[in-house]
Amino acid sequence: MAHMPMAHSQPPQPTSYERLTMRVSRLVNNARGVLDKHVHVERLAASSEDWALLLEAFGETEGLIVAHRDDGSIDLFWRVSYDDY
């Protein structure tokens, strides 16, 4: 039986919302974000729909404070609870 090479399919590309959440995750999880328990998030090229979904998700996240800035960006503040460990 002849060996047939397997087709290599590309992994699916992340959606625009997934790219936005990955960017925010990188901000939160970098050394400065971890130490300060605060990050500043700019909307950048995020669509209105993606930004609204992100803000809705943040609103449902316990222990997260979202401060809206005049320029449309947000600041996120959180505390680490020792009950989480």
TrEMBL record:
<protein>
    <submittedName>
        <fullName>DUF1654 domain-containing protein</fullName>
    </submittedName>
</protein>
<dbReference type="InterPro" id="IPR012449">
    <property type="entry name" value="Phage_F116_Orf28"/>
</dbReference>
<dbReference type="Pfam" id="PF07867">
    <property type="entry name" value="DUF1654"/>
</dbReference>
